[in-house]
Amino acid sequence: AARLCSGAGGEAEAADGDGAMLRHLARKLRASGPITVAEYMREALTNPGQGYYTRRGGVGESGDFITSPEISQVFGELIGIWYISEWMAMGKPNTFQLVELGPGRGTLTDDILRVFNQLASVLSKCDVSVHLVEVSPKLSEIQASMLTGGKAQPNPEDKSAYMKGVSKTGIPIFWYRDIQDVPPGYSFYLAHEFFDALPIHKFQRTEKGWREVLVDIDPEAPDQLRFVLSPSRTPATQNFIQPEETRDHVEVCPEAGVIVQRLASRIEKDGGAALVADYGHDGTKTDTFRGFRNHKLHDVLSAPGTADLTADVDFSYLRKMAQGRTATLGPIKQREFLKNMGIDLRLQVLLQNSGDTATREQLLHSYDMLMNPEKMGDCFNFFALLPHHRLVHPDKKDKPESKSPLPPVAGFNELLLK
């Protein structure tokens, strides 16, 4: 199910001709010695010539993993309702930038735009635009095809967006390589299965103190890689291990920290919110680094560049990196969030409207995949960054009785459906 929760089994072998990345890494390791796990992930996933995302990017049935939007349209619809609910709770501002980080095949954005179209009368006075942050040329082509029907073109006159188009429902869409290129303004951010693919550093507690886990050539098998421990402390060990850390093995994703800082400062300055959906933990798990190929677990050091590499998101670290600039909610389990968003009611409506048995069975199967604690229901979590005033009135302390109560945040509180 999706990229499985850590701890499942399975193996896949590399196909012939997929050794270019391994040869590239072997040359690099012979020249300069062991590299960090973060550098290994960066090379294996985003190297311009041989990286997994730049070359393959296998989302969906024919790829290496399936994500929630690929399983059921209901997932994306409920996310779309979350954004509209928050936009209304924040006073219906007249601009609305939907910014998605790592949009995959564009399925989630497509489902959200369908909801926006169905609620066009609610959004009629609002200037809505979509901004996609995508490094993979292959995936951006797939997104453009899905969202614009192929009507997207390079955008040479604008230095920040490398491509632009118009959605099938008439909403402008822009593509960027970095979140910093997205224009400032009132924005709602979405990161679904984005943070888990960012490079991590791995650390091990030893009798001599913390050591970083590195990747090196196996001296007994020169065409294979292995993990080694740094002989002494590395700069990352000194910067990323908290003094109060109690675990013996820790994974830290500094890039996730930087992105959360950027999101928090943008939300603090321009308003909006961010919704993060990913598998992860609240600072409790240890070794979660794993690979996926053809929907099976794959040795992370075998045939680099041919498999997806991923690690659970540490939400306690994201919360810390928001540095109090925004309020944070969650993480809460996917099944709780979707239940609070009214998935059961939506399922009933779809079942009533579906004429044939096959469609009904597919709907029930998709629901089970998303909600079953043994499948995706408990592995995936939702986490949000919101402006402080969304949760506490600025002058509540002085005159607690003068303000009307703030509406609950959809998904994180149970919605009372009238």
Approximate strand percentage: 15-25%
Separation of the first and last Cα atoms: 34 Å
Total number of strands? 18
Residue stretches low in confidence (pLDDT < 50, at least 5 long) are 6-17, 60-65
Taking all residues together, what is the mean pLDDT?
A: 89
| Count of separate DSSP helical elements | 15
Question: How many distinct folded domains?
Answer: 1
CATH topology type:
Rossmann fold
Which CATH class is shown?
Alpha Beta
- Range of helix content: 25-40%
Give the overall shape: globular
Structural class: alpha/beta
Quaternary organisation of the protein chains = single chain
Largest sheet: 10 strands, mixed
What Rg is obtained from the alpha carbons, in whole angstroms?
22 Å
Which architecture name does CATH use?
3-Layer(aba) Sandwich
InterPro entries: NDUFAF7, NDUFAF7_sf, SAM-dependent_MTases_sf
Protein name: Protein arginine methyltransferase NDUFAF7
Family: Belongs to the NDUFAF7 family.
Biased composition (Basic and acidic residues): 393-402
Q: Any overview of this molecule?
A:
The two termini are 34 Å apart. This protein has 15 helices and 18 strands. It has a single domain (27-125, 140-145, 179-390), classed as Rossmann fold (3-Layer(aba) Sandwich), CATH 3.40.50.12710. The protein has helices at 20-32, 37-46, 52-55, 68-71, 73-89, 107-118, 137-148, 235-240, 254-270, 315-321, 334-340, 343-353, 357-371, 373-377, 388-391, and strands at 35-36, 95-101, 127-133, 152-154, 163-166, 172-176, 187-192, 201-206, 209-218, 221-229, 249-252, 272-281, 290-293, 296-298, 308-310, 313-314, 327-333, 380-386. The strands form three sheets. Strands 2, 3, 4, 5, 6, 7, 12, 16, 17 and 18 form a ten-stranded mixed beta sheet that branches. Strands 1, 8, 9, 10 and 11 form a five-stranded antiparallel beta sheet that branches. The chain has a three-stranded antiparallel beta sheet with strand order 14-13-15. The protein has 418 residues and is an alpha/beta fold. Helix 5 (73-89) packs across helix 6 and helix 9 packs across helix 10 (315-321). Keywords: Methyltransferase, Mitochondrion, Transferase, Transit peptide. Belongs to the NDUFAF7 family. Its EC number is 2.1.1.320.
